[in-house]
Write a structure and sequence with these properties.
Number of helices: 9
CATH topology of the largest domain: GTP Cyclohydrolase I, domain 2
Strand order of the largest sheet: 5-2-3-6-7
CATH superfamily of the largest domain: GTP cyclohydrolase I, C-terminal domain/NADPH-dependent 7-cyano-7-deazaguanine reductase, N-terminal domain
Bound molecules: zinc ion
Largest sheet: 5 strands, mixed
Order of helices and strands: HHHHEEEEHEHEHEHH
Oligomer: single chain
Strand content: 15-25%
Shape: flat
Distance between the termini: 55 Å
Structural class: alpha+beta
Number of domains: 2
Number of strands: 7
CATH architecture of the largest domain: 2-Layer Sandwich
């Protein structure tokens, strides 16, 4: 049984690899066209390897499309008696805005109140990355993280706050460097119970917000 599974996994990896190579070749080709549309000479030395390099970067920056919660959390769920709020602060992330394909980046803060199930702290960064490495808008990213934690742990409540800087705003001059956009998603007790929400927000304000 175990041997069969191994063989199957290897097949899947090989198929996945072929698909990845096809995708890479297509993105490289499109990037060459993009360079030409920009008025560049795609054949000049500095740009010769850019399409392939860029395609490989895209592969990494959008790897979240090819991940799911089960893979990312890898069974790191535990039973726990505690029903005290857990807060994981300052999870650094970078993502791409779906309106301009330009980066936005910042920090995510996640809080939850367990109801018998908890998860390894490091998994919050992996969950954040899984959603961040897709084309996004900050509001949806925030909501997706909250919904994922809710679905995974069925806790009493979840709160997610994201502070980010959008290069599409900064580079086009719409916003000044350093301007932060804050989004929140509150579920369960974090949405319904004002004291819970306040406790969470106070914990964040103590240090990381308002810099
Ligand atoms: Zn944008």
């Amino acid at each position: 049984m175990e041997i069969d599974e191994t063989v199957q996994n290897e097949d899947e990896v090989a198929v996945g690899g072929a698909v990845a190579l096809q995708r890479q070749a297509r993105i490289a080709e499109l990037t060459r066209e993009l360079l030409e549309a920009l008025g560049e000479d795609a054949q000049r030395e500095g740009l010769l390897k850019t399409p392939l390099r860029s395609a490989k970067a895209w592969e990494k920056l959008t790897e979240g499309y090819r991940l799911d919660l089960t893979q990312v959390t890898n069974g790191a769920l535990f039973e726990s008696e505690s029903s005290q709020m857990v807060i994981v602060r300052d999870i650094e992330f970078s993502s791409l805005c779906e309106h301009h394909l330009l980066p936005f980046f910042g920090r995510a803060h996640i809080g939850y109140i367990p109801d018998r199930k908890i998860i390894g702290i490091s998994k919050f960064a992996r969950i954040t990355d899984m959603f961040a490495r897709r084309l996004q808008v900050q509001e949806r990213l925030t909501g997706q993280i909250a919904t994922a934690v809710m679905g995974l742990l069925a806790p009493k409540g979840v709160g997610v706050v994201i502070e980010a800087q959008h290069m599409c705003m900064v580079m086009r001059g719409v916003e000044k460097q350093g301007a932060m956009t804050t989004t929140m998603s509150m579920l369960g007790d974090f949405r319904d119970d004002q004291r819970t929400r306040q406790e969470f927000m106070d914990a964040l304000t103590m240090r990381s917000l308002g810099r």
